[in-house]
Design a protein that fits this description.
- By secondary structure, the protein is of the alpha/beta class.
- The chain has 2 domains: 176 residues, Medium-chain alcohol dehydrogenases, catalytic domain (Quinone Oxidoreductase, Chain A, domain 1, Alpha-Beta Complex), CATH 3.90.180; 129 residues, Rossmann fold, CATH 3.40.50.720.
- The protein has 10 helices and 20 strands.
- Helix 4 crosses helix 9.
- It starts with a strand and ends with a strand.
- The structure holds nicotinamide-adenine-dinucleotide (NAD) and zinc ion (ZN) (2 copies).
- It comes from Ferrimicrobium acidiphilum.
- It holds the Pfam family ADH_zinc_N.
- Its cofactor is Zn(2+).
Length: 339
């Protein structure tokens, strides 16, 4: 029997690592030996609150969805030539049949099965099985951590695509967490001038080490009282008041994408500003068709993760990995390395 340790959330604030038999890949699936998994804010949220919106943890749940690994086994119909390949795992497997899937917007598939989203187990484990269509070979020059961080990078790519970011745009990114810092780097690659805002000095320092020098200290002035004028807003704080204010910095004809998820299901918007400036406003939900570009951006050395990855933990220390960002905000993206 191949031993498979899996770190499960058994109740709020309690993770248990259990050793089980490794899963058997089904049709068109691979068995993947996990090498690196990023700890996401959503993992921390499930750990602390046991639910996110309508997703409630009702049975022990393996957390972790930002995963990379090596293909070690193939189920019926999966190409055995890929065994041994290092891969980035796209965590959401959509149904492939509904209208959203068929029109390419598979991130909106109502039947998507997304790792570490109840009741689907995640990747804080030695092994997972995953659809062959949603694992992507990565070149040797990508580290395991970069391969795993194709997931938050994908959120940044999708936000920029949805905002239609073009060369020369002034893009305001509110929030220098992992998502904001990925979105900002993508905006720069799309040719934009990037302005970043955060309240925490160490988060702005991380942005500075990524080469951004147009930084707004949100503790000294609210973003709409700072003189910033932007063509595009990529809101990545999840703070309702920030979205409300940051939309007001947009120039007429500006575009806003709300990435950050506020705890409140409803929030106030500056409707008169949105109308008089004809602001285009949209939410974004995860991403679709982004992994090839994420891998290419890492391959070309255009996206940096060193100032973002804060600390590394074994699977047995997963609880510490889930707690560290609350204790030390300079640890932006903790990684779990099961190997
Ligand atoms: N829409 C999606 O598909 C999607 C996907 C992934 C994450 N998210 C959401 O994106 C958001 C960002 O994720 P993250 O992992 O980077 O979170 P994070 O909490 O690490 O980052 C948020 C950042 O916002 C900063 N911030 C707080 N108040 C601020 C203020 N008033 N002004 C400026 N900055 C402020 C914080 O200091 C922090 O650095 C979260 O709300 C997350 O739930 C959405
Ligand atoms: Zn994530
Ligand atoms: Zn579907």
């Amino acid at each position: 029997m191949t031993r498979n340790r899996r770190a499960k959330l058994v109740k709020i604030g309690q993770m248990v690592v259990e050793s089980e038999e490794a899963p058997v890949p089904g049709g068109n699936e691979y068995l993947i030996k996990i090498t690196a998994v990023g700890v996401c804010g959503s993992d921390v949220h499930y750990f602390e609150h046991g639910k996110i919106g309508r997703f409630v943890v009702e049975a022990p749940l393996v957390l972790g969805h930002e995963a990379a690994g090596v293909i070690v086994g193939a189920g019926p119909g999966a190409d055995t030539a890929r065994i041994g390949h290092r891969v980035a795992v796209e965590p959401g497997v959509p149904c492939g049949r509904c209208m959203q899937c068929r029109s390419g917007g598979y991130n909106l598939c109502p039947d998507v099965r997304f790792l570490a989203t109840p009741p689907i187990d995640g990747a804080f484990a030695d092994y997972i099985v995953h659809s062959a269509d949603f694992v992507y070979d990565v070149p040797d020059d990508l580290s395991d951590e970069q391969a795993a961080l194709c997931e938050p990078l994908s959120v940044g790519i999708w936000a920029n695509r949805r905002a239609g970011v073009r060369c020369g745009d002034r893009v305001l990114v509110t929030g220098c967490g992992p998502i904001g810092l990925m979105a900002a780097q993508v905006a720069r690659e799309f040719g934009a001038h990037v302005i970043l805002s955060d309240v925490v000095p160490s988060r702005r320092d991380a942005a500075r080490s990524l080469g951004f020098d147009n930084l707004h200290d949100a503790t000294s002035s609210p973003v709409d009282g700072s003189g910033i004028v932007a063509d595009v807003l990529v809101e990545c704080t999840g703070v309702a008041d920030v979205a409300l204010r940051a939309i007001k910095t947009l120039t007429p004809g500006g575009r806003a994408v709300l990435v950050g998820m506020a705890p409140e299901e409803e929030q106030a918007l500056p409707v008169a500003v949105i109308q008089s400036k004809e602001i285009m406003l949209t939410g974004v939900f995860r991403y679709a068709n982004t992994y090839p570009l994420a891998i290419e951006l890492f391959h070309q050395g255009r996206i940096q993760v060193d100032p973002i990855v804060g600390a590394r933990f074994s699977l047995e220390d997963v609880t510490a990995a889930l707690k560290i960002s609350r204790i030390d905000p300079s640890c932006i993206k903790p990684m779990v390395l099961p190997g």
